[in-house]
Amino acid sequence: MTDSGSRTFQADRCPLCFGDNQCARAATPAAQTNAGCETCWCKRVEIPEELLATLPEAARGRACICLGCCNAAMSQPAAGVTKTLDPGGREAMQLEANGQTVLISHTGAQVLSWQTDSGDILWTASSPEYVAGKPVRGGVPVVFPWFGDHKSDPAKPAHGFARSINWQCSVRNARSATFSCVDTPATHAMWDFAFRAELTVTLGDTLQIAMRITNTDQREFSFEQALHTYFAAGDIAEASVHGLENVPFVEHAREPEGEWDASAPIRFRAETDRVFQQVPDILSLRATTLARMVTLDTRNSRSTIVWNPWPNKTARLSQMQADDWQSFACIESANVGENHVTLAPGASHEMTLTLTAATA
Ligand code: TA6
To answer: Is the CB of residue 158 below 6 angstroms from any atom belonging to ligand 1?
Structure first.
């Protein structure tokens, strides 16, 4: 027996309301055969950690939280978790922890902002157009299952469909939320494979985004992916990207810089749209006019795209004011082209990006 506060813990009673937690058992089909809890409710991942932390040590994983308490916990998001709307009026989730805030839209599981004590590390267009189902220009659009224009059908959406569909969200706590989506008839019409995609955002001293793709089909499939991150750069003319010196790349810009030193950090002096392959895990963006250095630490990302549209391409893009190009740099953690990913049925692949912002 363990004394939990003013009352003694009993394994067959809810450790929170001390009610008879048969109602919890009654709610699980297997329990109707008196086989006891099918899965102990104290282990259910949806129950916020803060609530589980109130249980006596001996109760964790043993007692069943009664249905009433469980539902009460589920209906009240944990502290620091706010169900909200993104600026386009779509469902969004806001996590607040240790002085930082991250906003994630259910549309495309798109991280839209990461507010820190030195401001928003991410950039969003100055007049973003919020069209139902269309990605916002900015934040971290999720690119899947192809990068860029579709290789054979220009009618299919650039950068795939993942960033334009609604993802489901399950929140662990104020520090972590997982968004997920699976194939639908609409996705099969564009890419005829069964899959599950999960994006887990974790807020701590860093911002971590983990993108996990699982092949739930009977056939092997290949895909491209990217976390197409728009970073606030202050004045792009004073920004630089470090870590890609002497790394093989292909320049896709229509009006690129004439000559540059590939052995030096990247500076932006013209339209830049470089796809690097066999990239290192650690890169950084120095945003001098923001007195900021952002470090990108990736796992299982073998490609990086560095992009700024410069004025002429900006004029051809949606959701861009004429001078928006001056204030952002895209550094996209990816697996594209020769580094596309191939998964056997049942296999998964997880690419992670961990961002750290520091004063520089
Ligand atoms: O990542 C670089 C890029 O492929 C550019 O060529 C440009 O098209 C950019 O992505 C933005 O694409 P979007 O479809 O979001 O306008």
So the answer is: yes
